[in-house]
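Hey, resending since the last one bounced:
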Amino acid sequence: MTEAEKVVSWSGRKRIKAAFTHSSVDRVPRFDQTVSSRVATAVMGREMLVGSGSLRFREVEERFLSDEAGAEFEEKMLKDVVDFYRVMGYDMVRMPWRDRRKATRKIDQCTYLFGDDSGNEPWEICRFNPDSDDWHSMDTWLAGGNVEKLCAYLEKERQNWQGPQKSTTLLEELKKLRSLAGYDIAVATSVAMLMIPMWEPAWLMALELAPDLVEDEFERQTEQGIADLYLVAESGVDVNHSGGDFCLNTGPVYSPATFDRIVLPRLKRIVEASNKVGIPYVYRTDGNTWPVAESLLGKSGIHGYGEIDYGAGMRLRELRARFPRLTLVGNIDCGAVLILGTPEEVRRKTRENLEDTGGIGHIFGASNAVMAQTPPENYLAMLDEADRFRP
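The structure tokens again:
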């Protein structure tokens, strides 16, 4: 086979699969789990519904108007995501982080209530900030660290649990995404997540006051996640880009001992199921994971590690040295160099990042997301420099 024929034979899907076997590739595969719609719109010259807070807010708006408006939004979003990822030369596409909830009340132009805030059941008020492109929680049923209310809810969930449910909606969405994307680009999903809301004090308090109830919640997530893994395997997805945030820049929000006792055994079960269905499991979390690295990145058996947080001290060279068979996904500092750097600085950091792994067993991209504040020229410089690198 000639060199030209080898180049033609490479597809995005093939590059992604090669990253998980640590095989040689024609170029480093690339994937960003989220690109802000604002950046994508600037790059493409037309409105693109592809990701970030504005995407979630828009979906809530449309679903509040009517089911028909919500369905139309979803159709446009899926087409935009596939179009954008293909035009930008990505090797893998995934469903963006979304907010599929039907709001119960519109409070003002940018604020919606979900659930009934007059009772003890879960409810939340979320607001969109057009300046920061952030869709965030303003108030919740657990405000003030109401651990008693949370424990009562978890006890009720324990009693009502009747086993995992089958989501036909999830399967239909993934089949639609796969059909639109085609088979020359990899498709990622995000099921079998394993986490608790780390920003909600009541959950962290419950870990100390009622650990059995929180452990039961992790068990429900595990059982549902394993069922979902078998379900999504029917759609032909290639990678499960999952996990769940539990670390800050200073380290995990709960102790390594708690991780080993509650999370690790269940994560191992999820990985075992992933192996059975043949879908690599990528655990993604921001923050400094070094205090739990041996368990999370080694003992668990996960296939990949994503959202590798450069700003929290996570470096590819060190990770590769300690976990040589782990596939590394994303590490360009999205909160600093991509936003604040010059295109030349972005190119230099991109080159350093790729040289740390030699481009093998590495899926290149931002540490978390290409955020709305990212200058389009910096984003394009990152992609162009990655194109120039040869493993």
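The radius of gyration is 21 Å.

Sorry for the duplicate.
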